[in-house]
Structures are given as structure tokens and as C-alpha cells.
Amino acid sequence: MSEKRDFTTPSGIPRKAFYGPADWNGSRYAEQVNDPGVFPFTRGVKSEGYRRKLWTMRQYSGFGTAQESNARYRYLLDQGQTGLSVALDLPTQLGYDSDDPRAEEEVGRVGVAIDTLEDMEHLFAGIRLDEITTSFTINATAAVLLAMYVAVAKRQGADLRRISGTIQNDILKEYVSRGTWIYPVEASLRLIVDTIEYCAGEVPRFNAISVAGAHFRDAGATAVQELAFTLSDGITYVERCLARGMAVDAFASNISFFFYTHSDFFEEIAKYRAARRIWARVMRERFCAQNPRSWAFRFGLVCGGSTLQAEQPINNAIRVAYEAMASIFGGASSIFTAAWDEPFAIPTEQSAELALRTQQILAFETGSAEVADPLGGSYYVESLTDATEREVCALMEEIEGQGGMVPCVESGYIQQLIADQAYQRQRRLESGDEVVVGVNCFRTEGSTRNLELFQIDDSSVHRQIDSLRAVKERRDGARAERALEALRAATGSGENLMPPLIEAVESLCTLGEICGLLRGIFGEFREPIVI
Amino acid sequence: MRIVIAKPGLDGHDRGAKVIARALADSGAEVIYTGLRQTPEQIAATVVQEDAGAVGLSILSGAHVSLSRKLIACLRAQGAGDIPVLVGGAIPPGDVETLRALGIAEVFPTGSPLAEVVAAFMRYERDGAKR
Lengths: 531, 131
Hints:
heterodimer; A: 49% helix; globular; B: 44% helix
């Protein structure tokens, strides 16, 4: 290996050999940084950091049928996991029932299949929704899944004002980088505002949206781009809620965020510190929010993703551990540590357990969680936080200058910026300018031989389709039809779609029926082709 | 030289597909990228319509075996059974031979070097599938 000559962060921020008072001297501490729990929250949204409550250990999981996933959830909870994160299969994310020809081969594969309210009930069998928080990585069909979750909570006799969790519900980034869009932009934004408005009124502790930068990042964006695009998306959603006539303090605390922590330790920490400061100012100064809870930038994250490598895969466990440590120094509210075998398949029970233990060791053995923002006041970290903030704000202004995120997404501009970065990064990897251990140096042969990987039980597809058909036969068909008609009428009147959606799922209308109806009315997004 | 890069099925992870498409274009190929959620029928039709010399599938959802099988059947049905199909994505090592047995020319799991992928496309585009 040749000696490293280029000392910039992956986002291109120059790095000096050391930092001192000339780089950051604390003279503007109260204005720029301030104590944890105090505006602008650079050092965290809680004054005592993790002392009163650790971050939520929330491992993304789900596969096959609701019953199989429920067993994995209970296993993880028994192992000390503190929140649930539901992975849904692609047909569920795209509004197709498990018996739809387009769903073939994808049922239960990258997540659990949910067709009807009964599946959602099985998913949480033996788990009280008022005692656990649940995160759903669901976007285009988020309103339907929220309706099902609310309906299950009601059936369990839970008080809706006490249930808490998150639906991702961030369609703008789907158009750019994750690809599970259905409807065109305006119809999707209406559905999102409907869910935010509904939650603010009825399920106030539920985060109706988790504005996600993670997928920009995994598609190739730098940390600076990830943050700028995410905050710009957040601004778009706030503007849409205000346009609906909602008061900013009525919904701002229902908005949370979601990121990837990648490998560059200090850049990631600086990213999260800068994020809190920028968002606090946007909410207070631009949107005139009065409630400090509205200024607080709360986020969950994933460690792993595209930093995981297929070569020498056990190394991934080490990568994830470092990323998790950066994440808590960054002040994350919830963390998902991916398992080492995820470049190949859904994790096995053993690899999922190791991923959870990684967080538990960090939390309980290293002492890292006992002091809030332990790196605050470091010349380097404060300087890098300032530089990240400057770069992010400059990119946000550029997006604003082009009319905001909606036109930038529809034109493919954001997609192009990300594709450019992904390609340049790949070139750096291939040239060896950027080192990935075991991949472009320190290679060994045969590191992927004899892996014991998780196998999907193919028979679960048939069980899923059988139970879907049984529900359709058993349900009160007339009630289901009335519910779909009421939903159709509501789309035309402009009223909030959540109440008719809840009625539809309680009438055992299927996800595919509901989304098929909406697809017919709203149409589909047309993807700009960008390479 | 014309190459179709396609995303079959419902999977939305297109980073790899786009990076490969760009690398092929940089190497002088004319690349047609299909965008997301293409059925095997649509992909085969694109291959025939564009008179492509090779097609690359990018799949990270785990549905690679059945989607590959279907595409090969569709290509044959449309009289393009000699067009080589290369597959990349989240492919467990144990599935590589399965894919080859189906008639997939080359398999590139995540992390495969661009240069290798590009060279394989060039070779197969020139020589055909030899199935």
C-alpha cells in the first residue's frame, strides 16, 4: 500500500494534521454549540444524554409470513432488544397482494408479507403495542400500514394516545434512491400530510414521518449530500403541512429523521451534530416554531449498508461496531446494527444476535454512554461540525434556488448528483485511492466459502397466499366494498384519507385492493432515467 | 456495441446498475438502462428492439434465480436466445452455479471489480452466449 496523500473527508472537507484554538476557540459557545438539551442542540437534544434512557436498540427484521417474523421479534426481545423495526417485503411496499402475478418470487423475501389486518395482528401476537415502539420501513403504502397498526392497537384495547413508533413515509427519497414509489409526487405528498395530520390529532406520540437520508447515502451520496437532501426533504414536508393549515407546533415533533452511519468516524459525528443545529434554526427561525420540542432534531440510523463487504464478511461485524460508536457520539435515538452476513442474505438468528450484542457491549461495557456529547469542545470535532454545516447549508441553498426538492427530484437532478458520486467512489476503490480492507487490499482467497446463510422457507409463500384467500372468503364482502367506495369518494373530496383507510383495513380490504384503487385514481410516478 | 442494463422485479436498489452502466458507457459501449421494475418480458422486448449484444441484470432482492430463468425463457421465446445474460447483485456464493446452469453467462456478486465486469460484457457481446 502506498502512503496516503489526500487528507480530505469522504465529503471532500480538508483535514489538517491537528487542530487547535485557531480552528475553534469556544468564544461563540452559547450561540453555536451550547449545552446538551439547549438550543441549537449541537450537543444533543437531551441534557443528560443517554443517562435516563439509552438509545433504542432496534434491529430491522422481518421475513416470510407474519407468524415467522413474530417468532424472530420475540427472540430479539428476549435477547434484550428494546424496540421493533419491521422489514416488509417488496410487494407490501409496492401495494401488491401476495397472490398478485407481479409479486411472484418476492413474497416474504426481503421482509414480511402483509396483505390484510389479520397479518398485522399475527405480527404482533403477544406483543403489546402500548409497551413497545415499532418502526416500519414503509413509504408508498405507509398510510395503509399505519391504518393497520392503529387498528391492531385498538383491537388490543390500547390507548392510541399512548402508542408510539415511526412510519418512514418519506416518498421523496424513494423517487431518488430506494425505488418503492407508486403514485406521482403530488398525490404522495397529500397522503403523507394526511398521515401527519392524523397522527398529530389522534396518535400524538407516533412519528408520522421519518425523513430518511440513509438511502441517498447508500446509493452513493456523501455525508454532506445525505444531510442536505434530507433536511431539504424535511423542509418540503413542513411546508406542505403548513399549506394544509396546520400550526407548526402541532406537528413538528411528529417528524423524525433517519440516516446511515458510514465508516469515517469523525465525519459521521460531525454530520449529526451539524444536523441538529441546522434543523433547530430552520424550525425556529424560518418556520417560527415556539415549542422547543419542535426544534429538536431526533433521529435513528443504520450501521452497515453499503459499507458491508462480501469479501471476508466477518470483518463487517468490526465495521458495524465502529459505526455504532460514532453513532452514539453523534447522539442517535435509535440504532440498527446490521449483521455481518447481510451482503448475502437476511441474517441468521446467530448473526442477528451478534449484531444486537454489538450495541449492548457498547452500551454497558465501554462507558461511552455515560456522558453526553463526550467529543464536544474538541477543536477537531467542533471545527468539522462547523465545516459540515457550511457545506450542507450551501447545498441546501442551491436546491432552494432550483425551487426545492420536488422539482430537483422530478428532473433527476438529485439522482444525477448521487450517481456521479457512486461512480467516482467506485473508481477510487478500483484505483486503490480508497482502501477497503479485504476487498482492495489484504485480500484472501475463499473468504466466502462455506458460509451458513439464512434460507427462506419457500413454503411460507403458499401459506401466505392460502391465508389471504381464506380472509377474502370469510370477510363480509359487502362491508369491504362499501369501505372501498367510501375511500374512493374521500379521494375526490380532499378530506383526510386516514379514517376511510382505517375503515377499509378493519373491513379486511386487502393492501392490494386499497392500493389498486388509489393507483387507478392517482396514477403512477414516471421515473426519470439517469445513469 | 449495445448493451441493455436492466432492473427486473420489484427491487429498487439501482446503485450497482447505474455504476455498471456508466462504466460500460465510459468504455465505449452504447448502454440502454431500463429503469426500475421491468418484467422479464419487457426486458427481452427491449433487448430485441434495441438489437443489443448483451444484457445485464442487477438484482438485490434475492429473486435472482427465478428472474434469470424467466428472462432466458423470454429471450428464447422472442428469438434472442443467443444473447448473453450477465447477472450481478446480492448473490449468495451457493447460487452462482445454479445461475450458470440456467444459462447465465457470468455472475458478479456485490464487490466485483468494475474492470472485470466491463471486460466480461465486452467479451460476451463479441462472442455471444454459447449456451
